[in-house]
Amino acid sequence: MPDPSPQQAKARKAPSVWVALVPLVAMGLLLGIGYGVYAIKAQVLLIAAAVITGLTAWAVGLSWDEMQQGIVDSIRKALPAILIMLCVGLLVASWIACGTIPMVMSWGLGLISPRFFLATACLVCSVTALATGTSWGTIGTLGVAFIGIAQAQGIPLGPAAGAIVAGAYFGDKMSPFSDIPNLAPAATGANLYDTLRHMVWSAGPAWLLGLGFYLVIGLRYGGTGLAGGSVDTIRVTLGQAFTFSPVLLLPMLVVFAFAFAKKPVIPGMLLSVVVALVLALLYQKQSLVTLAQALNTGFKPATGVPEVDRLLARGGLMSMMETQLIAFAAFSFGGIMQKAGLLDVLLQRVLRLARRTGTLVLTTVGSCILTALVTGSSYLSVLVPGELLAPAFRARKLAAKNLSRLVIESGGTIVPLVPWSMASVYITGTIGVPTVAYAPWALMSWLSVLILVLFGFTGLTMAPRVRDDETAVGS
C-alpha cells in the first residue's frame, strides 16, 4: 500500500491527547460493562471498540485504505504466534491421545504427601498445568480433589485454594501449550521460547518463595493420612485407560530438543505431533479416524470417570478458535490506533511519566492490573498493554521479551484474583471457595509482580534489545 499523498497528509489532523483517549475510554466502558457485567463475548465488544477507533481515526483525516493497512500490518506481525497457537492445539490433542500428558499427570499425582499438603498441592498443580497448558482444567479436576482432601483433613480452605490456584496459574504461564504465553509474544513482538526462559528469572524465585512459605505454614495443618480416594481414583483410571512407557516422553523431548537447539518452533511442534500419532497407534491402539477427529476438535476420552474425562477432553484446532478471534479483534483495534497516530500521542505521555526503566516497568504493571480490573479478561490484560507499550520498550532499547514477561506475570496471573473476572467466577464455582478467601494465599501471583517492579528499578534481568527482529529464538 503506497504512502498517503501530500494532500492526504496535509488534511490529516494531529490528534490531541483527549481525542486519542476516546478509543481507550470506549473500550474500557464496553468491556467493563459488556464483558464484566453482562458477560457479552469479548470479540464482539472489541470489534465495536475498533469501529469507534475507526470513526476517531476518520475524524483526524485517516482514509479507510490506511485503516485497513494498519489492521493488516498489525495482524501480519501476529501471524507467527497465531500459527504456533494452531500447532499447540494439534500438539495437546496428540500428546493426550498417545498417553504422554496422562503419564506425566500420573507421575505428578504420585508425589502427594499428606504431611505437606499445601506445598504438595501447589507442586502437583504446577506440574499438571505445565504439562497440559490449562489452569482451568487443572483446577476443575485436581483442584476439586485437593479441596475434598483439605476438607477431610481439616485444612483451612483459603490457604488450600490459594496453593491450588497459584500452582495452576504458575504452570499455565510457564507452559508452551497455554494460550497466554503464546499471545504475549504476538502482542509485544517477542517469541515464545525466549519469553519462557526470561520468565524463569522472575517467576522462578516467586514460585520457590511461595512453595517455601506453603511448606512452612502447612506444617501446622499436617494430616495423619490421606483422606478420600479422589486422587487415587484419577491415577488408577489413567493407568487403566492408557499404556504407559518411558517411550511416551519422546514427543516432549522432540519439542525441547528444538527449543534448546534454537531451531524453528513450528517444524519441531509438527514433528512432535507426527511422533505422538505414531505412538498413539502403537501403544494406545487408537484408530486413524479417532486421531484425525482429535486433531480437529480435541481428544474425547471415555474412561468412565467424569473428572478424568474433563481433564483430558481438550486440544485440537478448534480449541484455539476463540483465542484467535480475540487476537484478530484486538489487533484490529490496535492497528487503527497505531496507523492514525493515536497510539503515538498516548505513548509520548506515557514516556514522559516513564523517564527511567523502573518507572516504565511500573507503568506497564499498572496498565496490566488496570486492564485486568476493568475487563476481567486474561487475554485482554495481555494483549492491550502489550500492543500499547511495545514501541516504548523499543524506544528504550529494551528487549521485547521484557515486556512479554511483564504482561504475562502482571496481567494474566492477576485476573483470577479479580472477584468479577470470569476466571474467578469459574474457580469459586468449581471449588466453592470465595475469591477474597484464596486471593491473599495465591502467593506466586503477588510475588511475581513485586519482583518485576524490583527488577525494573534495579535493572536486574532487564535484557537489552540485540536485534530488530525479535520473533526469532535467541533474541
Quick structural gist:
The protein has 475 residues and is mainly alpha-helical. It has helices spanning 6-11, 17-35, 42-59, 64-98, 100-109, 117-132, 135-153, 157-173, 179-188, 192-217, 230-241, 250-260, 265-283, 288-297, 306-312, 321-339, 342-353, 357-375, 378-395, 400-412, 422-431, 435-438, 443-458.
Task: Indicate the topology.
Elements: H1 6-11, H2 17-35, H3 42-59, H4 64-98, H5 100-109, H6 117-132, H7 135-153, H8 157-173, H9 179-188, H10 192-217, H11 230-241, H12 250-260, H13 265-283, H14 288-297, H15 306-312, H16 321-339, H17 342-353, H18 357-375, H19 378-395, H20 400-412, H21 422-431, H22 435-438, H23 443-458
Share in β-strands: under 5%
Indicate the low-confidence ranges by residue numbers. Answer: 6-10, 223-229
Helix percent band: over 70%
First-last Cα distance: 30 Å
Report the count of strand segments. 0
Order of helices and strands: HHHHHHHHHHHHHHHHHHHHHHH
* Number of H- or I-type helical stretches: 23
Tertiary shape = globular
Radius of gyration: 23 Å
The tally of domains stands at 2
Report the sheet with the most strands, covering strand number, pairing sense and barrel closure: none
What structural class do you assign from the helix and strand content?
mainly alpha
- Average pLDDT, to the nearest integer? 85
Can you characterise this structure?
It is a single chain. The chain is mainly alpha-helical and 475 residues long. It has 2 domains: 22-73 and 322-458, no CATH class; 81-319, no CATH class. Helices cover 73% and strands 0% of the residues. It is globular, with a radius of gyration of 23 Å. Residues 6-10 and 223-229 have low confidence and may be disordered.
